[in-house]
Amino acid sequence: MVWQMDVRERLLADLCSPGMRVVVAQGGQGGKGNTRFATATRQTPRIAERGLPGEEVRLRLELRLLAEVGLVGLPNAGKSSLLRAVSAAKPKVGAYPFTTLEPYLGVVERGYESLVVADIPGLIEGAHKGVGLGTGFLRHVRRTQILVHVVDGAGPDPVDDLQVLRKELSAFGHGLADKPWLVAVNKIDLPEAGERQAELATALRAAGSDSYFVSALTGEGLDDLMASVMDRVRQGREREAKEARPTVVPMVRPKVEQKIEVVRVEEGFEVRGERPAQAVAMLGLESEEARAEVVRRLRRMGVASALRRAGAAPGDLVRIGKAELEWPL
Ligand SMILES: Nc1nc2c(ncn2[C@@H]2O[C@H](COP(=O)(O)OP(=O)(O)OP(=O)(O)O)[C@@H](O)[C@H]2O)c(=O)[nH]1
Ligand SMILES: [Mg+2]
Q: Is the CB of 190 under 6 A from ligand 1?
């Protein structure tokens, strides 16, 4: 994501597929070489234009992980264990909450297909208000096609865990709560979970969720879960291919300000406006020839007559950009 840091931050581009490009600042207009100033009577012109400086912008570049599947859940539910079980990734696993402090990506291979899964730090109730590690990491799953909600099947109340999770996702906004999702009830190898599988299945169905009972430890149920995830990712990819976006984001070049203003200042006059300043910057005033060309252009722009109208008197100083000239031009 490319943000321009202006008075208010403005999104310039979302570079989300390989090869996408964006022009964030234009180089300065190039100068004309001396041969361009040649005329029948001036065969070896000694003047040439300098190029104008390029635009400057301040940007904020934000990296979003490009995962298609996001594992979200309360701390200790087994998200990292699940990622280890289905991919070659080796995120840290610990028997305590908040083991994962940074998002972790893993590639899951299924036959000829593969997909990228992101494991992110656990969420707890109030995360959207900054409780625990907060919801900041959720930005890494904003691009995913599908969210897998991992709940601890052996925990005190897996259905309530799911509800907490759904609430935090809604509070975070950005459409996360509207993404397709399914539930992975983990740790089904433990008796506390195994014994109430039927009961949990009914309760979760009532809560509107599509649930899979799995064990990251023994691998039970993981194949079914990943097959379903892969199906949905495939559908998402097909949808995206249809809505393919252009790969180059054009930037509209700001127009050169045409207005020219002559203002009286203490020592004389100041000429304001982009075009006169550009003429001086590109040609310089070092040589007589360059100076004559600048003056010719200023006259053409109407600067000389504007100064005359403003009451310029011989000897008055005329400031244009960084340069100072003397009236009459
Ligand atoms: N018995 C059993 N234990 C599991 C299973 N999956 C994870 N665990 C254990 O649960 C604990 C937490 O696992 P993690 O994978 O670190 O959990 P997490 O959801 O990534 O936790 P955070 O990163 O803290 O949010 C560890 O002690 C794991 O060994 C499972 O399927 N069965
Ligand atoms: Mg973890």
A: yes
Name which residue sits closest to atom 7 of ligand 1, judged by CA.
78
Dist. CA 323 → ligand 2 center (Å): 63
Give me the domain span that covers residue 307.
261-326
Q: Is the CB of 135 under 6 A from ligand 1?
A: no
% of the chain surpassing 70 pLDDT: 95
Do 80 and 229 have their domain in common?
Answer: yes
Nearest atom in ligand 1 to 74's CA: 25
Residue 35 pLDDT grade (very low, low, confident, very high; cuts 50, 70, 90): confident
**Integer Cα distance of 144 and 247 in angstroms:** 20
Using DSSP, state whether 4 is helix, strand or coil. Answer: strand
77 CB less than 6 Å from ligand 1?
yes
Q: What is the mean pLDDT of the segment spanning 159-176?
A: 94
> Does residue 95 have its Cβ closer than 6 Å to ligand 1?
yes
Residues with CB under 5 A from ligand 2 (ion): 79-80, 99-100
Position 248 scores a pLDDT of: 62
Cα-to-centroid distance, 320 and ligand 2 (Å): 63
CB neighbour class for 293 (10 Å; exposed up to 12, middle 13-18, buried from 19): buried
Identify the residue whose C-alpha is closest to ligand 1 atom 1: 187
Asked if 48 and 33 touch (Cβ cutoff 8 Å), the reply is yes
Please indicate, yes or no, whether residues 103 and 128 belong to a single structural domain of this protein. Answer: yes
Residue 201 has pLDDT above 90, yes or no: yes
Rounded Cα–Cα distance for residues 216 and 196 (Å): 18
pLDDT tens readout for residues 138-151? 888 888 999 999 99
**Number of domains forming the structure of the chain:** 3
- DSSP secondary structure letters along 43-73: SS----PPPPPPP---EEE------SEEEEE
74 lies in the same domain as 217: yes
* Of 86, 87, 93, best ligand 1 pocket probe by most atoms within 8 Å of the beta carbon: 93
Clarify whether residues 215 and 267 are in a common domain.
no
Q: Quick one: 135 and 164 in the same domain?
A: yes
